[in-house]
């Protein structure tokens, strides 16, 4: 897994002109939006990952869920074992394109307060994930 460490105002000359495609992780596990939270947590544990790409019935990427988000849902007072990923995703996105520059992606991630972005092609199919190093 390749992680990217981004710092605001970085002047690293190797970062100039780099795109998301240069540093993104491969797509990894993709699951359908009708999967339950419990099953998604099991898939994450089996895959040893901290996030899953979520797809709709036609296979298009509709978002990303993190272990932190799923654990918080499971601990909530309104949780039941029937809660599906589509129930917790909310609005579609944010997403990025493989041709987006690292500077633009960093700005988008800071603005959206996320530490991982799905990378999708022009049709909405998942290509990978851009994740910040911790």
Notes on the structure:
It is a single chain. This protein is of the alpha+beta class and 134 residues long. It has a single domain (18-131), classed as Roll (CBS-domain). Helix content is 30%, strand content 20%. It has 5 helices and 6 strands; from the N terminus they run H-E-E-H-E-E-H-H-H-E-E. It has a 3-stranded antiparallel sheet with strand order 1-6-5. A 3-stranded mixed sheet has the order 2-3-4. Helix 2 runs antiparallel to helix 3. The longest helix has 11 residues, at 37-47. The two termini are 13 Å apart.
Topology:
Blueprint: H1 20-23, E1 25-26, E2 30-32, H2 37-47, E3 51-55, E4 61-66, H3 67-75, H4 85-89, H5 102-112, E5 116-120, E6 126-131
Parallel strand pairs: 2-3
Antiparallel strand pairs: 1-6, 3-4, 5-6
């Amino acid at each position: 897994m390749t992680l990217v460490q981004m710092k605001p105002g970085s002047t690293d000359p190797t970062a100039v002109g780099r795109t998301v495609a240069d540093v993104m992780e491969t797509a990894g596990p993709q699951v359908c939006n009708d999967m339950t939270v419990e099953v998604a947590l099991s898939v994450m544990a089996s895959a040893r990952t901290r996030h899953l790409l979520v797809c709709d019935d036609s296979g298009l990427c509709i978002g990303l869920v993190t272990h932190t988000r799923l654990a918080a849902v499971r601990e909530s007072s309104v949780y039941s074992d029937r809660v599906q990923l589509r129930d917790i995703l909310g609005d579609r996105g944010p997403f990025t394109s493989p041709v987006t520059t690292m500077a633009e992606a960093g700005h988008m991630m800071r603005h959206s307060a996320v530490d991982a972005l799905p990378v999708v092609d022009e049709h909405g199919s998942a290509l990978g994930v851009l994740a910040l190093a911790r």
